[in-house]
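Extended Data, panel c. Modelled sequence:
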Amino acid sequence: MDVVRTRDGVRPRDTLFRTVEEVHIFHDSWRIRAKVVYKARIRRIRVGIPYLRIILVDEEGTKIEAVAYDDQADRFNTALRTGSAYVFSNVGFMDTEATFEVEFNLRADLYCSIGRRTVLDAAANIIIPDLPPRF
């Protein structure tokens, strides 16, 4: 039997659920259910790579800044609609301090990285609070 050591002892490993201690935050295996509240126009960093910046709000009202680079910028610019809710599967989180030339609005420590492995599904059955359009 596969087990996991926790602060409270040892428990059987649940293959469908991993704790934060077990999964490094920078892995691109996270799933977010969120509403797109802002989608910027596609811009280019100095070396010419396009990027799309998006602000999401989850069910708890937490704002999450997300960025898609290169050909993914076009893909998600076409697929995402402001005001619609989605399930983003296979996203990662990156350090905003290590990202050059992208101006973040929320001034958070991390941003959501949307990449080639990210899968997008409509999420009509979740309730996400409405926020004013300005941040």
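The chain has one helix and nine strands. This feature is highlighted in the accompanying rendering.
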